[in-house]
Structures
1.
Amino acid sequence: MSAGPAAPPGARRVVLALGTAQTLAWASSYYLPAILAAPMARDLGLPSSWVFGAFSAALVLSALLGPAVGRAIDRRGGRGVLVMSNLVLAAGLVLLALAQGPATLGFAWLVMGVGIALGLYDSAFATLAGLYGRAARGPITGITLIAGFASTVGWPVSALMAEAFGWRGACLGWAALHLLIGLPLNRFLLPQAPPPTKQAAATEGEEAPAPRFAMPLLAFVFAATWAVAGALAAHLPAMLQATGASPAAAIAAAALIGPAQVAARLLEFGLLSRFHPLASGRLATIAHPLGAAALLLFGPVAAPVFTVLHGMGNGIMTIVKGTLPLAIFGPVGYGARQGLLSAPSRFLQALAPLGFGLVLERASVEAALALTSGLYLAAFIAMLLLRTPQRRPGGASPARGA
């Protein structure tokens, strides 16, 4: 058991700047369709499903670009990539505001997909790994604590701007915020990472080989858990109603996910930081099946238990996605590796809402919960199979306690 390396001085400023920029990036991209898809579709004479389909295409494109973005961060640090993400997301939002039909709207979302690849958590995590090496665990947790409020902030802001200026004005408003807030934060408050070879020599010592099959096991864990998270993000209230909860009760229970995620990240920042990230990952992957079992056994009265456990697991998994590869493989080559590990999860996250909706519609809520729980239990088993390498003499000992 160990708290791991302490983050260097100045990390707090970086966490505040990057966490704020990440909140803006998530709110103006990933969480945008929830509020603006319906008015976009209505104004352009399209079904809402077409807008969500274009958004899914953006996520698929971001998955394809992820490894290349990670390699660029490994070579030159993340500051320039994150600044470029602000420019690209601003351009995509302007193109959305100017869209006149399905072709121009689809193109705008593809530009947004490039911005998503450049500017969301994977790039932020790789930037922190380049700056702080193995000491990046605390900063990674810190930015997820701040950006965990992206939907809480983003949905009301999108709704207010759309009410005042229309959906096109809302897109332009978000574009302006990227240029006025996000870009200066990323450009002027993030230091440039040192060259990888110097950083490795300064922080790592000689590394033991990573455990066998670590990459495919991690890729499976992240794909399985992110697929479920994407599915429930779209269908959770409807699924809870299918268990017998009233619409009001279902919405009230679903609203607990956000606070549960933040509470779990505070737990990771405090108590769980004393343990290896594998311990956090194993707790995170068992939480959803426990909540699903309670929901199936006790019915809608257990809906809050299910959503709290799912939210806590999802909140910790967001951090584990950044910290566990760092603990197992180290910071050298982190960006490219993170891009490869994230690609399957982004593909499945794009497809999961459709697939899960079909299961709910054509099978039953019990089958849907069995599917999600099965994926999480398989991820838990994969976590049990993972072991961490012990560094050879001469390097600092890794955090233990898994």
2.
Amino acid sequence: MEKINKIKSIALFLPNLLLIMSCNPKDKFEWNAGISAPIYYGASGPFVEYFYQGKSIAGASAGGIEPGWGLTSGGYTGGDIYKPVPDSISVSWICDADGVQYKVGHKLPREEMLNLFKNKIIDSYGEKLDYGLIVTGFAPGGNVTVWMRGGNSSTEITKFKAKNIGVWKENDTNYKKYVEEHEKLSEGFKIANIFRFFHGIPYSVWEKGDKQHKYDLGFSSEEDYKYSITYYSKDGSVYFLDSTPYFLKWANRFVDYPKNLNSSHQLKLPVQMDLIWHSYDNESRWFEGNVLLPQNLQVTFEKGHYDRMIVTIPKDTGGDFVEGVIYFVNKQKQDQVMRFRLGRFDDKQKKLLSPKYTLPKGFVVPEWEGRIPLQKPTDLEYWQEE
């Protein structure tokens, strides 16, 4: 009787074991497809499909995206939960910046990807994470980058060029009229157009990659105000900083190196920071502005061997703006990068009382390299450092 019960138990267990084994067979991993595009240089109709031995195993698509370079955006994704590592890829999209449609198929370094899936990724805090996404980025000029991503960390896999297959609806007058009318009404287009006006369309940075550096970011203000910083790099990557863990006490802002700030972070240098600074109380005083960084920032950073960038704002003196200073810092010195202004937002007038943009000394608007002529902003106000 005991033997019969054992046989029954084994018989009941085997199907479950086989089910478990079939869910996660050898060299198959749990991953999904992600899509990306640089902020303010978006992609319309991006589509990616991954293949293994000629068979489609996963894909993703969306109407239009610009979440930031390397970040993923919402859209349709498909494929089994556990999938083989792909050996090739197919992509297509229409570039928002130049109106060109791009398309290509390309081989992937499968063995390298397989090893990464097996060995996991170590993030900047030393935590070991599973890779869960293969992200494909669509950039101007037909530039494509593929990353494997785990948590908030990613590893670049390959770069390649897609084929220019012509201007999308080049001779469709109704489509052109629709686009022009949409651009006139779209606040998002106005913001993107100003960004492109100030920073150009850096095709080469997507071809070669935006250099990363070992350094960290900090914020310090003399008053206990809340803050947030949105930070953009040259290739359209986006970083978001809030009150923790980047805050440094005012008295120790140049000497305090707390453990929660990590100078071994691999970060790109900013070309622009959008800042908000406001009080906690009910009579909230709100300041904001968009700060363009000096165009020689990388040369300055590398020459000075810095390990931190600190954004500082002293007390609110009750005026129409506050003035702050950005520094590069290491344990031996602190050097001023630039001064900036944030305008106070007036609730009654519903506007900033100082220009929204700050330009550094010697800033030169870059030459526009795009196929479609840039619309020069007509109502742009800025304060420039003297």
3.
Amino acid sequence: MEVLPVNPWLALAPGDDPAERIRQVGRAHERFLAGDRRPERMRSVVADSWARSAAFLQADSTPPIELADDDLEAYRSAHPLAQVMPIFRDLLGGLAEDGDHMMAVCDEHGRLLWVEGHPATLRGAESMNFVPGARWDEAHAGTNAPGTALAVDHALQIFATEHFSHPVQRWTCAAAPVHDPGTGRLLGAIDVTGGDHLANPHSLALVRATALAAEAYLRGVAPAQRRPQVAALGRDEAVLAWDGRRARLGRRHSELLVLLTAHPEGRTGDQLAVDLYGDDVNPVTVRAELSRLRRILGPELLDSRPYRLRTGLVTDFGTVRRLLEQGRTAEALAAYPGGLLPASDAPGIARLRRRLDDRLRAAVLAAADRRLVQTWLDRPWGGDDLEMWEAYATLCPADPVAARRVAALTREYACNVAATWP
């Protein structure tokens, strides 16, 4: 009986014959495509990834290129991982130059920002669009080390026929996610891609150590170079990082902190009560919550009479707003993981959330860029956006999927209107 690796993130168990394992997994892949959705003798991380991948694409699909030329250069130069490229090159550059391997760095959405290696090796990868600007998350490229590392938020190897897409199955790769050490936000992943010989514990340890070195560097520069940071997009509870500390705030404290950052001039207790409760004003409760928040933040951050932040905070929603003001729509969309505190029903938060959503959506529509519209539609909130699908159908008139989706959503919305008509 076959023994799977003790470490589930490693592709091979000690003593495994790589050639035989390739054949075994290849047969399992054929059975999976034929309808056996839980093939035997497969690593669960790979089987689960195949299931996710099959919901989005066919096994012969090629990842799309979403960023190119000036757009790519502008985006990656502003990305936080640009700061640690010297570390990646120092630790993995030798592998990337030996003619057998490539080093790749992707953002949190799976877009390849840098792909480096021997020119001949890079040319060999071009046929599968393993190039800067291509989208290698699971939804666009299937099971692969950087895309799956992002999906499961863990370092891992993907070996040969474990890749979901046939064109990628001659490669083996190892990748590790990289996080912002202050907020814990996923920044992207570092990957090494090459031949079957990469399926060993050393390659996995190497990319993991490289990711940790990058995070350590970012942790070291953050206190000196950055103000306190707030992450509140796409999450129900905000995360605050300051002075080497990191705190996940409760729902009400998250709402208060976001409101205070949106009103640097300060707010009275009554104003905050209206922002939180609308007509059902409860200033006593608000003042009690603010007192608790002040104990968390400390007097060096939160003042009173009026309530205001003594230090300007760097917020992810402020970053998106600033990029939009500068006309950098592609970067704004890339920096937008979801709505502002989406579970909050506080009137003040709902207004801020709606205002930012509307500005970003309008900018994407005004850009009339197929890649931006496609990115919006690929996000969880964009799949049912009829106007955006109509824009995509106009930009890509030959795409039958767009036409079908427009027709389906038009019928669905018409039925909903008819059902509510008196």
